[in-house]
Write a structure and sequence with these properties.
39% of the residues lie in helices and 13% in strands. By secondary structure, it is of the alpha+beta class. The strands form 12 sheets. A 7-stranded antiparallel β-sheet has the order 25-24-23-22-28-27-26. It has a 7-stranded antiparallel β-sheet with strand order 41-40-39-38-44-43-42, with helices on one face. Strands 3-2-6-5-4 form a 5-stranded antiparallel β-sheet. Strand 8 (183-186) and strand 9 (194-197) form a beta hairpin. InterPro entries: cDENN_dom (IPR001194), dDENN_dom (IPR005112), DENN_C (IPR043153), GRAM (IPR004182), Myotubularin (IPR030564), Myotubularin-like_Pase_dom (IPR010569), PH-like_dom_sf (IPR011993), PH_domain (IPR001849).
């Protein structure tokens, strides 16, 4: 029985003590006055009566009622029912608190609060103060409280004739039962009657309608998320304007949590004064008035539920884990069926008559039933995971969380994990774990209804029926007597609060009330306590648990077969059949990934222990340990599947004898697993064992008694520990005191003995075999974390600083400082403390344990020392012998093999991935460090793979990152130190060192590697140390009296350069500022020397050529032989001699101004500059550009004569300065002006050097972009650009022509922000065609600028147009070197991940590839290059001026030349291109490749590799245009970082000369040494093998390539992804080729007829070698046959040429294509001849833009016809091979070669059918050397003999053929044949 009400309180409004704004509550009276002993008076009631604060009101409000809840210190809840009504303020009371009206202000004016006159009795100034009646109770009978307080208020208001004291007295003395379903009628003595029903079961919460209301207000999803939030201990805050709703919502949420009890802060109504409680760190459920919403919004981690608005706001930082599926969705659908039954019927054609909706109270119970079912499903089988640790005197129960999660299959589930770790669940276990107690609805449900719930899962109607049944029971519990509940209580009349109250609420007589209370108390003492005996029973356990979702064991579907393999292997081991076991072992290790196999292993081993087979020999021991390690490595720290628990007894059982008296147990070999250092694991194990022993304790006792009835004993054994405990608890009260004591002691000693046993076990598994090692520290985070946040174990024994040092990456610790024993002792002591206090071990015993633990540990360390000593003496297991790698000539081993395991690195193929094939990795072998490479050689650990050698290597120079790692060795599963080395050749060595490799050896390896990777000086690199004359450090010997040697020469050169460079800044002052008049005008034509503004020459920088010293002359001659010079001469850009004599005919000349590298160190010695510019002016121009890299010509288009220039970006002055608004004059202005004027003149000179544009009708105006491919996005020139010859035309054209597509240079474009014009073209705005070909090509305009300057957008900001400039700026946005570096890092990670991908399949690779943005950069480069190609092709020159002019500029310029000039697509040409643009023009290979120690910080930036990738992309799109194969690009990609050759060392020619590298190739060829130059090597290799040759090479003459550049058209280069584990990277040909005679060839020819089949494994074999293409195969075959016949084999190239020729002849007679047509260009014709004809507006001329039209198509109709014919002839050549030809006329003619080439006799064939003139070397030659397309011929005219022509021939035998591109000079043998030729050609032209 309990009191209905503990206290009755009357609280009224009182002034605030500090006279502040609000009032405060004052307790006027409380009854009883003194506290009850069992229940003190709760503090702070006055705050809770008016939660929004005590305030006066200008009008009477109706009375309000709500129930607040206070929780006391013992977490008892007190319900405070508050009924508030308002009374007029007494004048005396009003005083300082008359807040609300305006009176407050006046009062202040009148001089103080006391000076107020009494308010007028009239209503306007009347204020009302609140007064509250409060009932405090521990029972939750809201309706009874409402009625009782209502009655008191009614008596007061209505003035009933009833003593209030009596009513209050009766209220306080009313006693009602707590539970049990009784009902009680009470009366307070005012003619009232109330019936109180108590619930049937005390444990079920009472919710009335609160749950249903909560769902109505917030909806299903919101309530579910609040439910999950409350369970996972988040903070929940309810907001509402109604207090009653707040209490209801909180009550409802708590009711949903049943059977768990909410144990954190619970305040349904929080007063305003206590709002700071909301910032408490602990979880809570709190309700607050919506008026304080603003305060709630500042809280960052609180989930706010707004009841009035129906919203739940979850902050970003809070993650509420959802219920595990499928429970989440099932619960959701059942809730919607309960709340909205109409939903199911909404779509029916004939809906049934409306269903009866259950009442709100019933709906409330249905909703609760849904959640009750949910908990039953979640916690199903929880009783099977309870550990009974003690039974007497009180039961102690522990819950095995890991086992529960493991068996439910919910280890990963965030929600359940958090619930089980929460306080509520701990309370649940201690309350419901007890085996013998009263049971309730939940116990029944979880034990008996699980099967039914499982069966109903998919039948919503059956689920609903079950929910309704449960709801009935819940309803019955709350309302056991539904019919009788009749109340009769008086209520006040309507609007009674508005009537003027007769008087304030009277003061009650305390004495009278107290007397009534005392009398009742006296009565109660006499009466016996009416306690209804609780019915206690054994709690049913229910069926064992099952997984929530039956996870289909897809991976281990064939588990029966796997278990069979495990069993067989174990039986082989124990039967001693080691070979059989060895074969099965890999399969077993793979099977042990599955749970079933691990359990099976534990059971099998257990059986062998039982058969006392625990002592093993060495091999058996090894096998058993390996299998155990494999099992344990997949165990998490929780060990949720109980594998570690099953193995724990076994690791202390299996052992081997090392020597007499020394036994090694298995535990010393399986310590490296995280599970052993997890305290939770040990606790669960300990409690499990204690339970077993305690159960045995009582069962044995029972068996002793029942020994006579032997038949029953086994049956009893079936009982679980909980059943035993329940039985014991039932008997406990019946036992005598002595018996009770005896049982308690027995249990306590059982626990104590187990604690000792576990202290031993833990020391076994925590102390390492070699206790001197500190390994434990690094690898056992668990041990340390308990002690401190750092990972160290020594925090307690040492200063914190030492502790921190263990965290650092270095990973080295001092052996002395680690106190392993101390750490283990502390770990065990903490464990012992925890379990013993929880399981009630006496303190004496506990002290004893603490004394024992150090001794146990010390003893164990001593035994281990002996074991460690003996185990060292074991004969080592035969390890595979180390395979020595093959080395290059000159490569030396620096460190001999260190034994390592090579681990899989995330490339799936090596580990037997999707490509099939064996698991080549992990492999066991050794790593070697040589002067050139890091090499791993070894064999796969998987015995099924067989004797395959695995090689992985990369050049030391390519190393980009090394990091220490800790990894498990694949064989013993031990944790070992490892290294991960990543290289920029896309190799990754992820190695674990073998145990035999000491940490010092590993460290030595790292240091040596570092030394080789970053030599202090470039002379230390492999290419320079290899066979070099002088070792670094020794001065080179001077060679005397032999004329200046190249070394001295280069030294002089450098000296001079240094001098001049030092001087060049001194002379600056001489410049005089130019006069302003000259600034804007174009310089007059005839001015001899336009550029030099100051007249005096500077002798320091320019010596006249006549005065060159002999050494300088020698330098000159060697400079002339450089690649650049050869190329300039080929392009007709001038010869050195002509430049010295200043011949005027050529527009450009070669200037030796930089031969001393004085002007620009990073430029070559000879540069092409405009003829009109004097050398001394160049010095000044160079100052406007970064790094002094002023614009020089690097290529000229043979057809449009446009030139391509390159330079560094501009300094702030310069062209940009020209265009910018004039700044205020600054101190150094004159210099700046002179420089920028020089620069302007220089650009003007470039423009003037270009062929003049013709007038509008001329050919060049529309020479346009011969490509549909470029589309409307190509910049058409701005209207203002003038043709140079006619300045007046500019204004005219400005009037007529519309604005060009370039718009304003300032406008910014989209992606990459090129200016909108070019920008839009580059960014691909507008509707491009498929493939990235842009949209409409109708962009041609009559004029365009003569020179476009492509510059960095950032650099060209604020440029304003200037009408007189003939150049135009194209601002584009380019990426910087650091972006290339960052992108490459990500690309490396994507292609060689380093660890296996989390999600298999290509998706993750593609995602990381996209993240790297590498392809986007390639796309941008190609895009810019194609733009430049277009501009050049249209006859405009282009200056590329980006960054410092040596990274992106080089990339763009090289790509442009490659696309525009077919010569660069040959092997020779590509070499020239790289030598010229990359080496001579100073791309900083050493800096970008981080070749030396100095460059280490800057890291590797693969600018050149990116260029090669672009070339590879073009090669893919035009496979027939390149003479070299894709392998050639990979080869360069590998060797430009390998430092094997000297070619790619250093940053510029200047540095190469300084080191004496540049010219020694000619001078000192001493011995046939290793190739120093990569080109030499390629040349030698090409003679032997066609590996660099592209068989599909069939170029179209003078084809300009325009590749698609969209990312969708780009492919990932296989250089990044492929590898060959059989021999390492295939780019060091000597190594890749195997022994001279490859064994593959020998095998078939050996004596025995062997099969010729070979298995080719992806990733292992080199596919091109194992399976060469048809042509290589035939060439090999020919060589083999020739050697068999004893002939010297001929070179492959000769054979190839012969075959091609024969092929042509064969094809002749029938004219049809033979199989040989595979050699002819027939494949990419869809790209080559897409003829596109466009109507050009009103003129009606057809513009032909065929992709291959080489001639510039004019605007005249005839030229378009020609173009049409040209493309038809191309189409024609698709179907007819070039060999089956019509020879209309043929004979010998002399032809003059290109510029500077001699006359040669050739065999010419005129082909009328194909409309071309072809020539051959001689009559029998079948390979055509060149073609002149007659469509391009403009005229045939008599010629004059030129230099070097045949002397004997008549002058009239010369004639010229003029084509659109060049003039061919011919000479026939005599005059008649010349005439004949001219006639034939003319007739061909006229036929056309």
């Amino acid at each position: 029985m309990a009191r209905l009400a503990d206290y009755f309180v009357l609280v009224a409004f009182g002034p605030h003590p500090r006279g502040s704004g609000e009032g405060q509550g004052q307790i006027l009276q409380r009854f009883p006055e003194k506290d009850w002993e069992d229940n003190p008076f709760p503090q702070g009631i006055e705050l809770f009566c008016q939660p929004s604060g005590w305030q006066l009101c200008p009008e009477r409000n109706p009375p309000t009622f709500f129930v607040a809840v206070l929780t006391d210190i013992n977490s008892e809840r007190h319900y405070c029912a508050c009924l508030t009504f308002w009374e007029p303020v007494e004048p005396t009371q009003e005083g300082p608190c008359a807040q609300d009206g305006a009176e407050r202000d006046e009062e202040a004016d009148e001089g103080g609060p006391g000076a107020l006159p009494a308010p007028t009795p009239g209503p306007p100034g009347q204020l009302f103060a609140p007064k509250t009646l409060v009932l405090v109770s521990r029972l939750d009978h809201v309706e009874v409280f409402r009625n009782s307080l209502g009655l008191i208020y009614t008596i007061h208001v209505e003035g009933l004739n009833v003593g209030l004291e009596n009513v209050v007295g009766n209220l306080l003395t009313c006693v009602i039962p707590l539970a049990g379903g009784s009902q009680r009628t009470i009366s307070l003595g005012a003619g009232d009657r109330q019936v109180i029903q108590t619930p049937l079961s005390d444990s079920l919460p009472i919710s009335r309608c609160s749950v249903a209301l909560l769902f109505r207000q917030l909806g299903i999803t919101n309530v579910l998320s609040l439910f999950c939030a409350a369970l996972t201990e988040h903070k929940v805050l309810f907001l509402s304007r109604s207090y009653q709703r707040l209490s209801d919502a909180c009550r409802g949420l708590l009711a949903l949590l049943f059977p768990l009890r909410y144990s954190f802060t619970y305040v349904p109504i929080l007063p305003a004064q206590l709002l700071e409680v909301l910032s408490t760190p602990t979880p809570f459920i709190i309700g607050v008035n919506a008026a304080f919403q603003a305060e709630a919004q500042e809280l960052l981690d609180v989930i706010v539920a707004d009841l009035d608005g129906g919203t739940v706001t979850v902050p970003e930082c809070v993650h509420i884990p959802p219920l595990p599926e499928p429970l989440q969705s099932q619960t959701h659908s059942i809730l919607s069926m309960v709340l909205d039954p109409e939903l199911e019927l909404a779509d029916l054609a004939f809906p049934p008559p409306t269903t009866s909706i259950s009442s709100l109270k019933m709906q409330d119970k249905e909703l609760r039933a849904v959640f009750l079912r949910l908990f039953a499903q979640l916690l199903q089988g929880y009783r099977w995971c309870l550990h009974t640790v003690r039974i007497h005197p009180e039961p102690v129960i522990r819950f095995h969380k890991a086992a529960f999660l493991g068996q439910r299959g919910l280890v990963e589930d965030d929600f359940l994990m958090k619930v089980l770790e929460g306080m509520a669940f701990a309370g649940f276990v201690s309350e419901r774990g007890v085996p013998y107690r009263p049971t309730d609805l939940f116990d029944e449900l979880v034990a008996h209804e699980v099967v039914r719930m499982r069966a109903d899962e998919n039948h919503p109607q059956r689920v609903l029926r079950h929910v309704k049944e449960l709801a009935e029971q819940l309803y019955k519990n709350e309302n056991p007597y539904p019919a009788v509940a009749m109340h009769k209580v008086q209520r006040p009349g309507e609007a009674s609060h508005l009537r003027r109250a007769p008087r304030p609420f009277p003061r009650l007589d305390e004495g009278m009330v107290q007397w009534i209370v005392d009398q009742a108390a006296a009565k109660m003492q006499g009466a016996p306590p009416a306690v209804k005996a609780e019915k206690r029973t054994t709690v049913p356990s229910g069926p064992p648990m099952t997984a929530i979702v039956e996870r289909s064991g897809g991976l281990h579907g064939n588990s029966a077969r796997r278990l069979e393999v495990v069993r067989n292997c174990i039986s082989y081991v124990f039967e001693g059949k080691m070979l059989e076991a060895k074969k099965l072992l890999p399969a077993v290790l793979r099977a042990l990934k599955g749970r079933a196999a691990r359990r099976c292993l534990a059971q099998e081993l257990h059986l062998h222990v039982q058969q006392s087979r625990a002592v093993l020999d060495h091999q058996q021991f090894d096998f058993v340990v390996r299998m155990m390690n494999c099992c344990l490595q997949d165990c998490t720290s929780l060990d949720e599947h109980g594998i570690a628990a099953a193995l724990l007894p076994l690791v202390t059982a299996f052992c081997r004898k090392l020597s007499p008296g020394v036994t090694q147990f298995a535990y010393s070999c399986v310590q490296e697993h995280v599970v052993w250092s997890t305290p939770q694991f040990w606790e669960a194990m300990f409690y499990g064992d204690v339970q077993t022993h305690i159960r045995a304790l009582y069962l044995e006792a029972a068996e002793d008694q029942d020994s006579f009835s032997a038949g029953e004993a086994p049956v009893q054994d079936e009982r679980s520990a909980l059943d035993v405990a329940s039985e014991q608890r039932r008997l406990w009260p019946t036992l005598s005191r002595e018996k009770q004591q005896e049982l308690v002691q027995k249990e306590e000693s059982t626990v104590f003995s187990q604690a000792i046993h576990y202290a031993n076990r833990m020391s076994y598994l925590l102390l390492p075999l070699d206790s001197s090692k500190s390994r434990l520290l690094r690898e056992r985070p668990g041990l340390g974390e308990l002690e401190s946040a750092s990972n160290s174990l020594v925090t307690n024994s040492m200063a914190g600083s030492v502790a921190e040092s263990y965290d650092t990456e270095s990973g080295f610790e001092d052996a002395e400082t680690c106190d392993v024993a101390g750490a283990v002792v502390r770990f065990i002591n903490r464990f012992v403390d925890k379990v013993c206090t929880e399981s009630g071990v006496t303190s004496d015993h506990l002290k004893g344990l603490h004394v024992m633990v150090p001794d146990i540990v010390q003893m164990h360390i001593e035994t281990l020392e002996a074991v460690h000593r003996e185990s060292k003496r074991l004969p080592p297991i035969q390890k595979p012998k180390l395979l020595r790698p093959r080395l290059l000539p000159g490569e030396e081993c620096v460190l001999d093999g260190l034994r390592v395991y090579l681990l899989p690195d995330g490339r799936e193929e090596g580990a037997g991935g999707p490509g099939g094939g064996p698991a080549l990795l992990p492999a066991e072998g050794a790593v070697f460090l040589t002067t050139y490479r890091v090499i791993f050689t070894g064999m796969p650990t998987d015995p099924l793979v067989g004797e395959q050698v695995v090689v992985r290597s990369f050049p030391v120079a390519a190393l980009t990152k090394e990091k220490r790692i800790s990894v498990q060795t694949p064989v013993d599963q031990l944790l070992q130190d490892g290294l991960q080395l990543r290289s920029c050749t896309f190799q990754l060595l992820k190695m674990a060192f073998d145990e035999e490799v000491g940490s010092d050896s590993a460290e030595l390896f790292r240091k040596q590697l570092h030394k080789l990777r970053y030599p202090p000086d470039i002379r230390g690199t492999f290419a320079l140390t290899l066979g070099s004359a002088h070792t670094p450090g020794r001065p080179p010997r001077a060679t005397k009296d032999k004329g200046p040697s190249f070394r001295t020469l280069s030294r002089n050169l450098v000296k001079n350069a240094k001098k001049t460079i030092g001087r060049q800044y001194v002379t600056r002052k001489k410049y005089s500022p130019p006069s302003w008049e000259h600034r804007g005008q174009p310089p007059p034509e005839d001015q001899e020397d336009e550029i030099s503004v100051s007249e005096e020459l500077e002798p320091s920088t320019l010596t006249p050529s006549s005065a060159l010293k002999p050494s300088d002359r020698m330098t000159m001659s060697s400079l002339v032989e450089r690649a650049c010079c050869r190329d300039y001469q080929r392009l007709g850009l001038g010869t050195l001699s002509s430049s010295l004599s200043r011949a005027k005919s050529e527009p450009f000349r070669i200037s030796p101004v930089n031969r001393m590298y004085a002007i620009c160190r990073s430029y070559p010695g000879l540069l092409i500059v405009p003829q009109s510019v004097q050398d001394n002016a160049l010095q000044r121009v160079s100052r406007c550009y970064r790094q002094n890299r002023f614009p020089v010509v690097c290529w000229r288009s043979g057809r449009s004569k446009a030139v391509l220039l390159r330079s560094g970006g501009l300094h702030g002055k310069g062209v940009v300065g020209l265009f910018k608004a004039q700044n205020a004059p600054s101190p150094g202005q004159s210099q700046a002006d002179s420089s920028s004027l020089e620069q302007e003149k220089y650009l003007q000179a470039v423009v003037s050097s270009m062929p003049r544009y013709a007038d509008a009708s001329g050919r060049n105006t529309l020479s346009g972009f011969s490509s549909a491919h470029m589309g409307s996005h190509v910049p058409s020139p701005r209207a203002r650009v003038t043709t140079l010859s006619n300045p007046m035309a500019a204004s005219a054209s400005r009037r007529t022509a519309p604005r060009g597509k370039w718009g304003s240079v300032r406008a910014s474009g989209r992606s990459g922000g090129l200016s909108t014009d070019v920008g839009s073209r580059l960014a691909g705005v507008g509707p491009p065609q498929a493939n990235g070909a842009p949209a409409d090509p109708g962009f041609l305009r009559p004029q365009r600028a003569a020179l476009y300057i492509i510059g960095d957008k950032a650099q060209l900001k604020g440029v304003r147009p200037d009408p007189l400039q003939q150049w135009e700026l194209v601002p584009i946005e380019v990426f910087e070197a650091r972006q290339v570096k960052a992108s490459f890092k990500k690309l490396l990670k994507a292609c060689v991940p380093g660890c296996p991908a989390t999600e298999p399949g290509p998706a993750s690779f593609l995602r990381s590839l996209e993240d790297s943005e590498w392809l986007i950069q390639i796309h941008k480069l190609l895009q810019v290059s194609v733009l430049v190609v277009e501009l050049l092709d249209s006859g405009s020159s282009v200056l590329v001026s980006l960054e410092d002019g040596w990274d992106i500029t080089t990339q763009v310029v090289s790509l442009v030349q490659l696309l525009s000039d077919p010569f660069y697509r040959t092997l020779e040409g590509f070499r020239l291109l790289v030598e010229k643009e990359w080496l001579s023009f100073g791309h900083r290979f050493s800096h970008r490749g981080a070749h030396t120690l100095a460059g280490q910080s800057s890291g590797f930036t693969p600018v050149f590799l990116q260029f090669l990738d672009c070339v590879h992309q073009i090669h893919l799109q035009f496979p027939m245009e390149f003479e070299f194969s894709p392998f050639y690009l990979k080869f360069l990609g590998y060797h430009h970082v390998s430092r094997r050759f000297r070619t790619f060392l250093l940053d510029s020619d200047y540095e190469r000369i300084e080191l004496g590298l540049l010219y020694e190739e000619k001078g000192d060829r001493r011995a046939p040494q290793a190739c120093r130059s990569v080109w030499e090597y390629v040349e030698r290799l090409s003679k032997r093998t066609p590996v660099f040759y592209n068989y599909m090479y069939a170029p179209e003459d003078a084809e300009v390539l325009r590749p698609y550049s969209n990312v969708s058209n780009l492919k990932v280069w296989d250089f990044y992804t492929e590898e060959t584990l059989a021999e390492g990277p295939p780019y060091d040909w000597e190594l890749a080729q195997g022994p001279p005679e490859p064994p593959e060839e020998e095998r078939p020819d050996g004596g025995a007829p062997q099969s010729r089949r070979r298995v080719v494994w992806p990733c292992y074999d080199s596919q091109p070698r194992a399976q060469p293409d048809a042509i290589s195969r035939l060439l090999e075959e020919m060589q083999r046959l020739e050697t068999e016949l004893g002939r010297p084999p001929e070179r492959w190239k000769d054979a190839w040429d012969r075959v091609k020729a024969a092929q042509r002849l064969e094809g002749r007679p029938d004219g049809r294509g033979t199989p040989g047509s595979l050699l002819v260009s027939s494949v990419p014709h869809h790209r080559r001849s897409l003829g596109v004809y466009l109507q050009e507006g009103p003129v009606g001329s057809t513009l032909s833009l065929s992709l291959d039209s080489d001639q510039s198509s004019g605007s005249s109709v005839s030229s378009s016809r020609q173009a049409a014919r040209r493309s038809t002839s191309t189409l024609y050549s698709q179907f007819q091979t070039a060999e089956s030809e019509n020879r209309s006329y043929e004979g010998t003619l002399y032809k003059k070669g290109a510029f500077m080439k001699p006359w040669k006799a050739r065999w010419f064939v005129l082909d009328k059918t194909k409309h071309q003139l072809r020539y051959y070397d001689h009559r029998a030659d079948t390979e055509c050397k060149g073609v002149i397309d007659l469509a391009e011929v403009e005229a045939v005219a008599p010629g004059t003999p030129a230099m070097g022509a045949p002397k004997t021939v008549d002058e009239k035998a010369f004639f010229d053929v003029k084509t659109t591109r060049r003039v061919y000079n011919f000479c026939a043998q005599d005059v008649p044949s010349a005439q004949q030729w001219v006639d034939q050609i003319q007739s061909c032209l006229s036929d056309a």
